[in-house]
Amino acid sequence: MKDLFFYKIYRFDKRLFFLLATFTVITVACNIKGDELTPFFIWAMYSEKENPVNQYRIYKIRVNDSIQVDYSSGYTDNNRFFLTGPLSLYHKMLENNRTDPTRSFIQEKLGSNLALIGSSADKVLNSQVELDHFLAWYKRYLEQCLSLPVDKFTVSVVNARFNDDQLLQTESSVLISWKQQ
After folding, report:
1. Contact (Cβ atoms closer than 8 angstroms) between residue 142 and residue 153
2. Which of 9, 42, 87, 115 meets the CB 3.0–4.6 Å disulfide criterion with 17?
3. pLDDT tens digits for 15-60?
């Protein structure tokens, strides 16, 4: 018994023991009930089978009409993420009536309780202001990554999937462009 973690905590600090024991009991009770108490203990995210992806989005970035940005090689993981991740969110916001899709997700989870965190959510989520400034920010990021001035860039958002012969097949393409004013 003296080797148990909770016993050692109890001997070290009784208040810490009761705090930790209370947290453990509440966490276990919430998990049994089916509520997600903290982002650290969401067991459900590990228990579902991962379904195969049917469709892929590929971003084709062309700078100054002559340079095709190949972000699949030659960039660090961080650069690769910032070349494609923000573009993905920008495109999703355009598809979602210029609204951050995270807001829709939170609304779905919280329902009418969204008003309780409304002001905090507004500070964290993207709004029309961020959407309007995105292309100028992305231009500056491209200039930084490529080490050359960017007068114009276009992004083709290509939706593709693998057909039955395991060949990549283009289904649609959307163009996002920015030009120096």
Report:
1. yes
2. 9
3. 999 999 998 888 888 878 777 666 666 666 666 677 878 888 888 8
pLDDT, tens digit (0-9, with 9 covering 90-100), for 48-69: 677 878 888 888 889 998 888 8
Q: Do 162 and 54 meet the contact criterion of CB atoms below 8 Å apart?
A: no
Cα separations in angstroms, 178 against 76, 110, 145: 25, 37, 17
Q: Do 6 and 21 form a contact (C-beta atoms < 8 A)?
A: yes
The C-alpha atoms of residue 22 and residue 15 are separated, in whole angstroms, by 11
Contacts of 131-138 spanning 24+ positions with Cβ under 8 A: 131/90, 131/93, 131/94, 131/98, 134/86, 134/90, 135/176, 135/178, 136/178, 137/86, 138/86, 138/87, 138/90, 138/178
